[in-house]
């Protein structure tokens, strides 16, 4: 069994003060993927940077205080790679992967975008470069007899069931037709599987992000943008998947919640 958790921490230093450190100390996960760390490793409190029983790798953005991804693994990885061979994005703190026995686990923070702006153009450039890499990664893993799971904040809802207020967000970044089509091609053409949707085929959500504005969390007006996207062989071994949603608004240490999946590898 390998249990993988993924969460956008919305700034690890702030999250550590609000409950992330306690969550990490109590999790049963074997791998934790973080996004939007927004800190250099040396800026992170020691108990979070190098917690007992974990091996950590941080991939911060060259732009200070932005983006940043990280991986925590119980077992020391056989190899770690930062970026995916992109001249534009490899120093942007958006992708890191590690090889563990039989499986490559990655943490992804795909740009959020903003419809009709340069931020959306940046998102589309990232998407255009990243899908061929996913295809290459899957092919290489298959040749090596390995599986792959790319966890993280994908910042795209694929279906209407993936966000509560889909009717009013049809022109919003994260639910634009071009974005949804691209994610569909990750599944249908690149050959990956949305693990949580596989485990919860008929459910609305389960959502993983709720705006801090208004009463989005209390009303469960969320978005399912935090995904575990796996090769079919690994996806078929997923036995349980859930969102670790806080009980109450004050207990939240991020505007996202961890998405956790247990895979039975035996």
UniProtKB/TrEMBL annotation:
Keywords linked to the UniProt accession: Hydrolase, Magnesium, Metal-binding
GO molecular function, one term: double-stranded DNA 3'-5' DNA exonuclease activity
Enzyme Commission number(s) of this protein: 3.1.11.2
Domain Endonuclease/exonuclease/phosphatase: 6-256
Keyword Metal-binding (UniProt): yes
Enzyme class: hydrolase
Source superkingdom: Bacteria
InterPro entries with a match to the protein in the record: AP_endonuc_1 (IPR004808), Endo/exonu/phosph_ase_sf (IPR036691), Endo/exonuclease/phosphatase (IPR005135), ExoIII-like (IPR037493)
Cofactor(s), names only, from the UniProt record: Mg(2+)
SUPFAM superfamilies cross-referenced by the UniProt entry: DNase I-like
Keyword Hydrolase: yes
Family per similarity comment: Belongs to the DNA repair enzymes AP/ExoA family.
Protein's UniProt name: Exodeoxyribonuclease III
Protein source organism: Streptomyces antimicrobicus
GN (gene name): xth
């Amino acid at each position: 069994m390998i249990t993988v958790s993924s969460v956008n921490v919305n700034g690890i230093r702030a999250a550590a003060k609000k409950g992330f450190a306690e969550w990490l100390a109590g999790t049963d996960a074997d791998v934790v993927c973080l996004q939007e760390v927004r800190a250099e490793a040396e800026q992170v409190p020691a108990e979070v940077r190098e917690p007992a029983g974990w091996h950590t790798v941080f991939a911060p953005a060259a732009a200070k205080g932005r983006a940043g991804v990280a991986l925590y693994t119980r077992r020391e990885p056989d190899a770690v790679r930062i970026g995916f061979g992109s001249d534009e994005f490899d120093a942007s703190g958006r992708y890191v992967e590690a090889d563990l026995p039989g499986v490559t686990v990655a943490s992804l923070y795909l740009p959020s975008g903003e419809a009709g702006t340069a931020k959306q153009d940046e998102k589309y450039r990232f998407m255009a470069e990243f899908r061929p890499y996913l295809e290459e990664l899957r092919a290489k893993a298959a040749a090596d007899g390995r599986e792959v799971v790319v966890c993280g904040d994908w910042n795209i809802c694929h279906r209407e069931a993936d966000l509560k207020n889909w009717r009013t967000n049809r022109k919003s970044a994260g639910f634009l037709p071009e974005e949804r089509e691209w994610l569909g091609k990750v599944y249908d053409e690149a050959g990956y599987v949305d693990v949580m949707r596989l485990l919860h085929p008929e459910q609305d959500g389960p959502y993983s992000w709720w705006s801090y504005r208004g009463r989005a969390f209390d009303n469960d007006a969320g978005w399912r943008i935090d995904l575990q996207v796996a090769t079919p062989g690994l996806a078929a071994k997923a036995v349980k998947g859930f969102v670790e949603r806080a009980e109450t608004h004050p207990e939240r240490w991020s505007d996202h919640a961890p998405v956790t999946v247990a895979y039975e590898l035996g």
